[in-house]
Specification:
Blueprint: H1 6-18, H2 28-39, H3 54-84, H4 88-94
Helix pairs in contact: 2-3
Length: 104
């Protein structure tokens, strides 16, 4: 039986990360890359990311991830509404306030 090298695990995780797939126990380099990308930082920065609390950095990474997921969900929702024609607010605005009147 052939063992996986740590290098192949890293490459697999990089591919998963780049596809936007969820990672458990991400390699530290991937975590730092994600944070630097999110903060638009470059390394090394004296007193920068390496000097920060790792728990805080993990929380920031989670927030970046959740923001991306929520933005994607909202974009899909807007797309569905656009395909239906109008947004619910626009449909309601087109109706008269008093409703239908009976003909005499």
């Amino acid at each position: 039986m052939q063992e996986k090298s740590p290098r192949s695990d890293f490459k697999k995780q990089v591919d998963q990360y780049m596809r936007g797939e969820s990672l458990t126990n991400a390699h530290p380099a991937i975590r730092l890359f994600s944070l630097c990308e999110g903060f638009k930082w470059t390394l090394p920065v004296p007193g920068g990311i390496y000097a920060q609390d790792p728990v805080l950095m993990d929380k920031f990474a989670y927030m970046f991830s959740r923001r991306a997921v929520i933005q994607e969900e909202e974009a899909k929702k807007r797309e569905r509404e656009a395909k239906r024609g109008k947004s619910p607010a626009a449909r309601n605005a087109a109706r008269p306030a008093g409703g239908r009147k009976r003909r005499k």
